Structure prediction request, 306 residues.
Amino acid sequence: GQSILSAQQFSPQDLAEILETSRRLEGLLGSKKNLKLLDDYILATLFFEPSTRTRLSFEAAMHRLGGRVISTVGVQFSSLAKGETLFDTLKMVESYSDICAIRHSVEGASSLAARSIKIPVINAGDGAGEHPTQGLLDLYTIHRHGYLERAKTSVAFVGDIKFGRTIHSLIQLLSHYGVHMVFIAPNELQLPQKYADLLDKAGVSYEKTEDIEALRSVNVGYITRIQEERFTDHREYERFKDAYIVDRELIGRCREDIIVMHPLPRLSEVATDLDSHRSAVYFEQANNGLYVRMALILGLLQVELP
Ligand code: CP
Prediction:
């Protein structure tokens, strides 16, 4: 079956359909807790790296659709800990479930999975590669705030642009909407060439800077954590971990209509004094993951909303 491996695979038409279905599901969930659309289906969640939002929202999405979930969390609790290969693990998952979501520290792990088994595979984060379903819920959030359709929207990405897989996915999705992008990061954590090439090919206008003051001119600020788990030299991480702090004072000097996003989890880079500020949409963003993941599961299993 069809899988979700990279943000690159979505056409503008696909994206329009996902946004529309997510919106409909958001409406339906207002009055119903179980849509009873996936009676006989099983989702397997295979998370070999830590997660709160992605795994729980995928599982909640499956339950809200009336389906069932089986799960293995952490390498130590699967037979991978006994030396079983990922391939053999996946062959089991293929026979026990109809669709699976996988998070793994190795870039390309979900693509390998999709080549190995016949059921649809969802990339729920592959190392410093991509996190396409996060990119889609980010896109939905930007859309719900009216910025996707507006001319001259500008989006700033702040923090760890090198290792931030959510950024790698979201910029590819946003490349279809004519938004201007600003990449704010220490030079060492700037946009990898691979993604710069994709943006160039798509004709996206963008700029790179180390200066957090560049946040002041944009409509959307997408802040990210410095990804400690991806650094081979821990001293490097220590050097960058507090590179940027976005707080009420800084946002007070930004555009009146700015929205502040963050894929979460956050450390110090978004101050908690911003949580009650009008601009803060990061918890709403995480909440949107439920509707978007419901839409994606339905699409992959080719089950239509009535
Ligand atoms: N945004 C995100 O992927 O969060 P989790 O790591 O908690 O799933």
Notes: The chain has a mean pLDDT of 96. The pocket of phosphoric acid mono(formamide)ester is lined by residues 51-54, 125, 131, 134, 263-265 (CB under 6 Å). The CA atoms of residues 45 and 71 lie 5 Å apart. The radius of gyration is 19 Å.
